Amino acid sequence: MSFAKPTHLSRDQIDTLGHELDAIRASVMNTLGQADVDHMRRMIAICRASEVGGRALLHFGVGPLSWVAGVLALANAKTLDNMEIGHNVMHGQYDWTGDPALNSQTFEWDIACDGEQWRHSHNVTHHTYTNILGKDRDLGYSLLRVTGAQRWKPRHWLQPIANLLLAMGFQYGVGSHDLELGKYKHGAIPKPVFKERLNRFLSKTAKQWFKDYALFPALALWSAPRVLAGNFCANLIRNLWTYVVIFCGHFTEGVSIYREEDTRNETRGDWYLRQLQGSSNLTGGRVFHIMTGHLSHQIEHHLFPDMPAHRYVEIAPQVQALCAKYGLFYNTGSLWKQYGTVLKRLFTHTLPPKPQTLGA
Amino acid sequence: MTLTATSDTPVAPNTRLGAATQAVAAFFQHPWVAGIVRLSAVEDSLRLLHPMLSLTQPRARVVRIVHETADTKTFVLQPNALWHGRRTALAGQYVQLQLEINGRQVQRLYSISSTPGARCFAITVKRQPGGLVSHYLHAQVKVGDVWAVGQPEGSFVLPATLPPKLLLLSAGSGITPVMAMLKDLQARRYPGDVVFLHVCRNPGELIFAKRLQAIAAQYPELSVVTHFDDISGRFGPEALQLAVPDVAERSTYLCGPSGLMDAIHQHWQAQAYTAPLHSERFVAFPLLPSSAPGTPVNVSLASSGTQFVTQGNAPLLVQAENAGLNPKHGCRIGICRSCQCTKRSGTVENLQTGELSSAPNEAIRLCISVARSDVTLLL
């Protein structure tokens, strides 16, 4: 895939599109109330109960069935905490409540990624520069080649394996994202700054490891192997799931990639347009949407990152109708279909680009 | 004295249970423990078990609601172990209530109207026309509700050594702190001479009427005087002089609407009374005037103690940078919230929505906010 073609929309149309999207945003933001907070509190309650229940099953359960149930409950808690709670709260979706427990700037989650570093790598870098090659470091996570516009290197032969490893350890990929290792290697980041970032990342990871792989197994005494394996599997399930959901949000077939020079002096309408064309959705039911943290509505999320995510479902038809009106691609499909196109892209770009044949 | 919501400072608890709770909270706040078990997750779980359970937050449950008058209710609150007011509260002090109204956290200060030292404490609230919180308290709150509460605060209190003659002067809902003082005087068996003068429109609006009668019956040193504006005309310094001829000799504690309080203060100055006049006024957050876009305004930074004057129409982030400051920032287009901070007071306009807001202690994004009045930021 090459860079996004210049849009067929006129300046006026882009402005109008911007105003129409602003109106959709206002229609939700002006009706925020108790129901929204209640939804988030219910999610937190389910998450905490699931974690306590899952750990109890792993610690005190007997037999493989209770182990599996414990792993699933713990994986469920970690997924909810990561996606529907942490991701959304840290976007500031609940800052309007004034509740310190739901404050985006102080919230910390149960994952190897330090909250403060995520707020920078995700909220600042990814959401501002969505799909701009060279600026949005979520594009391939500095590891994978997801577009023909990225330079091919011999290491990309190993891309399928790198992809699998990234999927399995996704939280470490996300956690180390803000280190900007590549930039540091090129001397663009001073050593003390890098060291400070590295320490933060390692300290958070160490604490997570200590908890899941040392403290809780030790507390379980003779059940230590059972707890250790259970915690490992719960983390693995969460990693794989978040990886799939997030890759389906931006690396599917048909999403647009942008060049830095094409996105200078963007208006609000231009920015909206880039978010629309740079994201892709997943279809599914209510529970599915919740388990993805409503990132199944990645398009709506990128348009309105600070709108409480459970409201995306109600505005999605309006956004889709706008796309139809302006002849824009509303990229959506089932998880299987969307992930299929992700894999296809990853494998396609594993191969070096065909040498350009000079005109005969 | 003008009162606005202040952040509560941690004070050593007076109960063993409170001390134990604080010790547990401190354990969870240790960097290593916090990295392993988040205090917020522990708090979530405790709240699930019981809404009163918390390691960090004083909370209180509504155990009784008393209808005082047609538009006044007293809420009797039972606090959890973290509230140390049972030992420390003084008559005349207030507490901050934190309520959730339609999903938003709202703080208000209310005088404690009960006698200090009791197991439960009470606040008495008059329904204000158009008042968000007082309306909510009257219409929505039921027995069993749990609120976050602050510790008792405020310096509108009786001295440890009481003067020989006292006047407790109140109007409207200003009766609440002085009522607590009166109960305290009774409990302390104050031997001196005390006049309790209360002003309201008519007998139907007299809050605590029965309670006042009961106290007066048991307390010979007390004389209760009521002034009803509907019957005797508008209360002012002349009426005060008539009702309490020896007012000049009385240490006076005054609480009521600002118009009356100003008049009494002026009277005190004009007559050059030497007896002290103590007063307290509660102001709802003022709706600050909003100046035209671009008018230079003062921006105070509460944490660093600096301030600067804005120039032109640029958002607060740019204004701060022009003033030589370097606040945390990110995208500069209102997406990432890196520059979000708490606005203590003032009116700002959101450049994306055009919305003006004057609410105190709200989170604003510096990169898309312009100041439309003097503002104080928690930076």
The oligomeric status of these chains comes to heterodimer
- Weakly predicted, low-confidence segments of chain A: none
* Terminus-to-terminus distance of chain B: 26 Å
What portion of the residues of chain A fall into strands of 2 or more residues? under 5%
How much of the sequence lies in strands of chain B comes to 25-35%
- Please give the most extensive interface between any two protein chains, plus how many residues each contributes: A-B, 47 and 30 residues
Q: Provide a count of the helices of chain B.
A: 11
Shape type of chain B: globular
Q: Which CATH class of the largest domain in chain B is shown?
A: Mainly Beta
Shape of chain A: globular
Rg estimate of chain A, integer Å = 21 Å
Q: Give the number of helices of chain A.
A: 14
Proportion of helical residues of chain B = 25-40%
- Major beta sheet summary of chain A: none
Sheet having the most strands of chain B:
6 strands, parallel
Fill in the CATH topology of the largest domain in chain B: Elongation Factor Tu (Ef-tu), domain 3
Judged by helices, strands and strand pairing, the structural class of chain B is alpha/beta
The overall pLDDT average of chain B reads 89
Describe the structure.
The complex is a heterodimer of chains A (360) and B (379). Chain A is mostly helical. Chain A has 14 helices and no strands. The longest helix of chain A has 29 residues, at 191-219. The two termini of chain A are 25 Å apart. The model of chain A has no long low-confidence stretch (mean pLDDT 92). With 379 residues, chain B is α/β, with parallel strands linked by helices. Chain B folds into three domains: 31-153, Translation factors (Elongation Factor Tu (Ef-tu), domain 3); 165-281, Rossmann fold (3-Layer(aba) Sandwich), CATH 3.40.50; 297-378, Beta-grasp domain (Ubiquitin-like (UB roll), Roll), CATH 3.10.20.30. Helix content of chain B is 26%, strand content 28%. At the A-B interface, helix 1, helix 2, helix 4 and helix 8 of A face helix 2, helix 3 and strand 5 of B. Chain B: It holds the Pfam family FAD_binding_6. Chain B: Its cofactor is FAD. Chain B: In the N-terminal section; belongs to the FAD-binding oxidoreductase type 6 family.
